[in-house]
Design goal:
Residues 17-40 are annotated as: Disordered. It is built from 9 helices and 14 strands. The chain is an alpha+beta fold and 315 residues long. It folds into 2 domains: 2-107, no CATH class; 113-313, Cytidine Deaminase, domain 2, CATH 3.40.140. The strands form 4 sheets. The protein has a 7-stranded mixed β-sheet with strand order 5-6-4-9-10-11-12, sandwiched between helices. It has a 3-stranded antiparallel β-sheet with strand order 1-3-2, covered by helices on one side. Strand 11 (291-294) and strand 12 form a beta hairpin.
């Protein structure tokens, strides 16, 4: 999300309500934009001037817009109070500090990437199986939000403590006749052999959307932190094919409507997709939930921001 703040000094309206400017004023201060690309504008006005907020690429969450406006109103009121008693340079410093504190509360609505990297490492340490290569697997968790925020360090004493032992989970998910574990806060799957084809772990956890293991997991906590991790990225031909019988996109749409923190994560690019252009395919995921690539216990990349894709996610 990009937020632009503009302050005009001339008096406008003596109130602290959120109110759009007049058509004449808008035409003088804002360059014309095509209707499809016009950013959302909100004005906060007061006896000492008015503050214009322009935000672009905001997540489609109306409650977040309301929160942004509310925080901005409070900050502007404090700024007007400070303006009465501080010299110019100090007023600017105070305003910058207030904005940094206020908008940090919005950033707190995202999974902390350092904590996310540690969570993914926990999954690999406990549920990954290596034979000649790493066996494909996927897991999803629905845990309290504070376990996805800054400074949380997962271990066996404070994380997923209600689950069966990692040995039991591994035995279930890598049994190709079962390939599934469902617990209290954790679900996991390997691959399932069905006659002439192999069903992928992402599809096992997310289909059918109305009654999948993922649906059951989401229903257990409506405002938790939900992380879905697949070792290999979802395959383009099956998992991200909107018309396919094993597509995960319908489940992602269902997930997107639930509150709480969200992260869809992968580590390696699926071997049959390594030479494909993954940019648009990954955007099919981020249409619903944030997508990350975690490459170590310390590093996760957010793959898509606005219309831009992080090249670390596709190379």
């Amino acid at each position: 999300m990009r937020v632009l703040l503009l302050v005009k000094k001339e008096a406008f309206i003596q109130s602290h309500a959120v109110k759009p400017p007049s058509a004449q004023h808008a035409s003088e201060s804002t360059p014309p934009l095509h209707a499809s690309s016009r950013p959302s504008e909100h004005w906060i006005t007061g006896s000492h001037g008015n503050l214009r907020l322009i935000w672009e690429e905001l997540e489609p969450d109306f409650s977040q817009k309301i929160q942004l406006v509310f925080v901005s109103i409070q900050l502007y009121r404090v700024y007007l109070t400070a303006k009465m008693g501080f010299p110019g340079s100090l007023r600017v410093f105070v305003l910058v500090c207030l904005l940094a504190v206020g908008f940090r509360s919005l950033e707190a609505d995202n999974v902390n990437t350092e904590t996310l990297a540690r969570i993914i490492q926990f999954f690999d340490d406990n549920y990954k199986k290596v034979e000649k290569n790493v066996r494909q697997y996927a897991v999803a968790i629905n845990v309290p939000e504070d376990q996805c925020k800054i400074n949380f360090v997962p271990d066996k004493n404070n994380f997923l403590t209600k689950e069966e032992s990692s040995t039991n989970v591994i035995n279930k998910i890598y049994d190709e006749n079962v390939a599934l574990y469902e617990g209290q806060e954790l679900i996991a799957a390997g691959t399932l052999k069905k006659q002439k084809h192999t069903r992928h772990s992402e599809s096992i956890l997310m289909n059918p959307p109305e009654s999948s293991p993922m649906t059951n997991l989401l229903n257990k906590k409506k405002d938790g932190c939900v992380v879905f991790y697949t070792y290999n990225s979802p395959c383009v031909q099956t998992c991200i094919d909107i018309n396919g019988n094993y597509s995960i996109l319908k489940m992602l749409e269902r997930w997107s409507k639930q509150g709480g923190l969200k992260a869809f994560v992968f580590k390696d690019i699926w071997k049959f997709d390594q030479k494909k252009d993954l940019k648009e395919n990954f955007k099919a995921i981020t249409k619903y939930v944030p997508l990350y690539r975690c490459v170590s216990s310390e590093t996760c990349y957010e793959c898509v921001e606005g219309d831009n894709i992080n090249l670390n996610c596709v190379q």
